[in-house]
Structures are given as structure tokens and as C-alpha cells.
Amino acid sequence: MISVIITSYNRKKFLKTAVESVLSQDFKDYEITVVVNFNDLDEYLKEKGVNTIHVDRREVGVKIYEALKTINGEIVALLDDDDVFLQGKLRSIQEAFSNDIDFYRNEVVAIDSEGNEINSPFDRSEIRKIVRAGDHAIVDKRGVYKIQVQRRSPDF
Fold first, then answer.
1. What is the biggest distance separating any 2 CA atoms in the chain, rounded to whole angstroms?
2. Which residue has the higher pLDDT, 53 or 122?
3. Residue 144 DSSP SS3
4. For the segment 44-90, what is each residue's pLDDT rounded down to a tens digit?
5. Which one-letter DSSP state was computed for residue 12?
6. 1-24 as b/e, with b when 16 or more CB fall inside 10 Å?
7. Backbone angles phi, psi at 145, to 5 degrees
8. Which pick of 2, 44, 75, 128 has the fewest CB atoms within 10 Å?
9. Dihedral through CA 72, CA 77, CA 80, CA 84, nearest 10?
10. How far apart are CA 78 and CA 143, in angstroms?
């Protein structure tokens, strides 16, 4: 099973799009956990079968840590609230990890808020301008990790 962790802090604009990009995958052996500091989308997330954790901390590491304590998957895929997974992402992750690897990272594609590809291939300075403008999303930005955690205590 792949556990997809989506983190968000005070950003709701693209969260549904991020969730839908996971739900629309052709590979179905996954769970989604969203870690947020707001409850506006709780009903939507519940209807979609998404696990929700409320953490009132800005730090991404804290949010990921809280999610790791609750997930069931052996493989963890991280997705920011303003990013999306392209179709086939979870299947390619599963296939890669079936070769007994421990870390998987792929290329990114920059898109605008409408989902249109921006300046591909792109240079990093152009992406920084887009990100600063706030009208962006980065597709498949994060790596994916296979975890083998021994839970030593209930507090993990």
C-alpha cells in the first residue's frame, strides 16, 4: 500500500485539486492523509474517504511526523497542497519499489493555476518567479520514500 501525505497550512485554493489528482489514479492500493490547520474542507475530505489530521503548526516536518504516526502503507508519497500527481504516478511508484529500492524521485513539470504547462523545459530562475507570484503548482515535486519503521512506543 502507498500512503499519500498531503500537507497544507492556511492554503485551501488547490487542496481539492491535489486530492483529486490522487483519487483519479489508475492504481488503487493507496490511502490519503491530509494534514491541515483548518476545518473548512473536512466534509469534502470525509466524503472522499481521506483521513484528516488537524495540526496547528506551520512546519512541514511536524505535519509529516503526525501523519507518519497514523498511516498504514509501506511506501510514503509526499504531495504539497498546491501540487498534483500526473496520471500513472502511483503505479510507477509501485513498480519502482517492487525492484527493492528505498528512495524514488522524479522530474517536475511546472503548471499554472489552470493546469497549463509553463515554459517546459524550465530553468530554476523562471520557476522562482512563478512561485513568488503565487499562481503556480509544481507537479510531482517531492520524492517518495519506502519506510521500514519500528514503532518502539505508542508515541512513535
1. 48
2. 53
3. strand
4. 999 999 999 999 998 999 999 999 999 999 999 999 998 899 889 99
5. -
6. ebbbbbbbbeeeebbeebbebbee
7. -125, 140
8. 128
9. -120
10. 7
- With a CB cutoff of 8 Å and minimum separation 6, the contacts of 96 are 104, 144
Strand, helix or coil for residue 51: strand
Q: Which three cell numbers stand for residue 100?
A: 527493492
Rounded Cα distance, 2 and 9, in Å: 23
* Residues making up the chain, counted from first to last: 156
Domains of the chain listed by start with CATH number: 2-107+140-146 (3.90.550.10)
Quote the CA–CA distance of 138 and 105 in Å, as a whole number.
14
How many whole angstroms separate alpha carbon 6 and alpha carbon 35? 6
Q: Residue 80 CB: number of other CB atoms within 10 A?
A: 18
